[in-house]
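Objective 1b of the project was to move from sequence-level analysis to a structural picture of ligand recognition. The entry below was assembled by the postdoctoral researcher (A.K.) and checked by the PI before modelling. It contains the amino acid sequence of the target and the SMILES of the bound compound, calcium ion.
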Amino acid sequence: MRHLLWVLLVLVSCTGSSEKNSLPETPNILFIAVDDLRPELACYGKELISSPNIDLLAAEGTRFDRSYCNIPVCGASRASLMTGLRPARNRFLTYLTRADEEAAGITTLPGHFRNNGYHTISNGKIFHHDDDAEESWDEIWHPVSNSSSWRDYALNENSLQDTADRFRGPPFERADVQDTVYKDGKTAEKTIGDLRKLKELDKPFFLATGFLKPHLPFNAPEKYWKIYDGKVSLPDNNYPPENAPKESLHNFGELRAYAGVPPDGPVTDDFALELIQGYYACVSYTDAQIGMILNELKRLELDRTTIVILWGDHGWNLREHGLWCKHCNYETSLHTPLIVRVPGTQQLKESSEIVEYVDIYPTLCELAGLELPEHLQGDSFKDLLYDKEAKSDGVAICQWYAGITTIRENWFYTEWVNDNDSSYARMLYDHRIDPHENVNISEDPLHAETIDDLSSEMRRSRAPNYFK
Ligand SMILES: [Ca+2]
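Corresponding predicted holo structure:
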């Protein structure tokens, strides 16, 4: 016995960290996707937001403070993350992206786990299309709303008919209903049932659960709206950045498709306040669903063998720059929440290293001890969970159509390029002095060298397929 203890001690001191000894050999994965969630959470310093469950997950795991999606729209961001491939000039561009068409033949993240003996389940919105990359999953399930509408309304079927000239119903709903009236409540129920079932399974699992809120429409039970009554304020930069290129702005058509939103021009302050409160209510509603799942994981003691990862598919503008929705190259659309909790290991509380969503696939493989498929274009950030001295490569490249944003240190540089790789617009922000990106300084000769450098960085190392 004494000999065994000695061997263990030597092993611990040789590896220099605890994670190798206590991480399960084949850990389960609980993969939580939240639609349109920017880091609007108390654990990210937004103290107004009630997000106790995600905050607890962050406290027990590692919170990434500089995580960026590679493309700020649902379908394309998810296809990129799930395949580990970057967007390119003709790949992963819109919300309608299908991974199994634009990356045909590529093994997806859950597909890779499935090939390695995992039982894989997709609940709710993981890929944009319900039937995308079906061979990745042993089981696929989608919630059905109580309402007959394709969207998730509790009360507003009549108003949908009243506004037949618009594509959709109202952009928010404040209904005094149970959580399970809306789809995300059903997704939580289904996922909890799965955990109980998977506990008895004789193989590891990759359980993906995707929540629809805080995506529009901002429909959430009354109790979550109430949290924010009288507490919401407007951002102080309700205007385009000084010298902003027109390419960086849009008309937030996604929001205008909803009834009651003016067809052009800005929305009123009162309407903006209601939209922001609705977004917050949806964040708290989703947080509560995630809490029920994480509590069940603990109750079943599966938390001891399960890696939990939580991510939002991209950011969202809540009237910053006069914008709503995503679909642009500002940090508001690119910055995302990312939290990873690994069982049985002593993790760092947070990381301020720059990581990208193409890095998630290799990270989960490495944590689970799976080989990395050759096609992957990101880098594992496993070391950032444990090693204070560890660094990422320090660069994120994000793409919105022809606009490519290079994020490095304090610089956020976007260049719009045409088919023959010449640029026709650009913007540069220095987050040390302008963290909200209110003044484009790309035409200031003082920064010419920085721009050259960032422009070469983008071309050289991070978008090898982009110009092909
Ligand atoms: Ca989305």
